[in-house]
Amino acid sequence: MDNLREYVKEKDRDAVYRIWLETGWLKKEQEEAMDLFLEGSKEVLVADIDGEPECLVTTVPAVIQYQDKELPLSGLTAVTTSRIARKQGFASKLAAKVIAKDASEGFILSALGMFEQGFYNRLGFGTGTYEHWYSFDPSTIDLDVEPRVPKRITSEDWGSVYENLKNRMKKHGYVTFSDKKGTEGMLKWSEKSFGLGYYDENGDISHHVWFDVDDIEQGPYWVRWMAYKDYDQFLELMGLIKNLGDQVKLVVMKEPSGIQLQDLLKHPFRRRRITEKSKFENKLTAWAYWQIRINDLQRCLEKTSFNGGSVDFNLKLHDPIEELLEKDSGWKGVSGKYVVHIGENSWAEEGEKSSLPTLKAEVGAFSRMWLGVRPATGLAVTDKLSGSKELLDKLDKIICLPEPHPDWDL
């Protein structure tokens, strides 16, 4: 396709506004926030019909926490197509093009938030872990914590908010974006959004919570994110949310990595039963809505270390993205035959050894196993990954990781 090109703000802005309006991503008066989002993106590509953009794809540079290391990751933050351009292959081709560009520049992983399972598998993505969303009455938070009086945080504080997010407590799988402009855009996206938090002795935000609001008087209040550097700060923020319970009837928040929110609530089953089917229903829902893929197998495995033994095997890896790449693409995906060692010092090299067992996998399934989304034995049942029972059992035993959670939505 020769109509895939870079976005030019001066001539394309109104057309990309229209794309997002037609897809429901944009409302009137949000154009400034969208401009900031695009300014903070590493790549912004469009596909034209009759000389005007009808598909938009963006990426933002980031890092992902893998065990105790930070690995370069490209966040595919928008894949949007107008009403007249559906089923033309633009989204797949543009996404493949931008993934290849970022991969060739050293981003060894790519990740995205999906609109539906299956579409991005053709680009080599595999589904991440479930994210739990808890809806609860904030007055039922069962904590003996007296939070200090917080400070108001507004969209004008976007720089300090970004720094707090960047320096928050890190867990396996956490994603941190590398550009501040996107944060400014997020804070300006809704007039009903607001933040509450605390500052340190240097005048910087030490920990905070940011809310999106449906009904300002009673809620629900959606916790868009929380940023804290230790669990004392987390508990203070939870105490702050509890104090909203005199007026707010419902708060919805994503369960933080390593925390089971039900532990902090009074009578969660009783509250669920008596609020069932109401506007303020207390409930727990779970969705696996983000996906990830490896762009450089050898560099990813170089950063991988396990202390629970080791295993060597042949890997026959298939990467479906190669079918969508342009002929002159410098990066061709990661399909191939590899000899892989997983252990304290892991590695992969091209080749094959007849003496070793063989694992066959699509890159999305292998990425899920490597990140700790699901064990090899489970992926062999539900995804495109197969091997002998002995090999799968060994991989299960060695690859023992906490569940990965990005924490910063893609």
Q: Which tags fit this structure?
A:
410 residues, alpha+beta, Aminopeptidase, Nonspecific Lipid-transfer Protein, Chain A, 3 domains, 8-stranded mixed sheet, 7-stranded mixed sheet, 11 helices, 20 strands, globular
Overall description:
By secondary structure, the protein is of the alpha+beta class. It has helices at 9-23, 31-39, 90-104, 158-166, 181-187, 231-243, 268-275, 297-302, 363-371, 376-382, 389-398, and strands at 4-6, 43-49, 52-66, 69-81, 109-113, 126-127, 131-136, 151-153, 175-177, 194-199, 205-213, 221-227, 251-254, 283-287, 290-294, 311-318, 336-342, 347-350, 358-362, 385-386. The strands form 3 sheets. Strands 1, 2, 3, 4, 5, 6, 9 and 15 form an 8-stranded mixed sheet that branches. It has a 7-stranded mixed sheet with strand order 8-10-11-12-13-7-14. Helix 2 (31-39) packs antiparallel against helix 5.
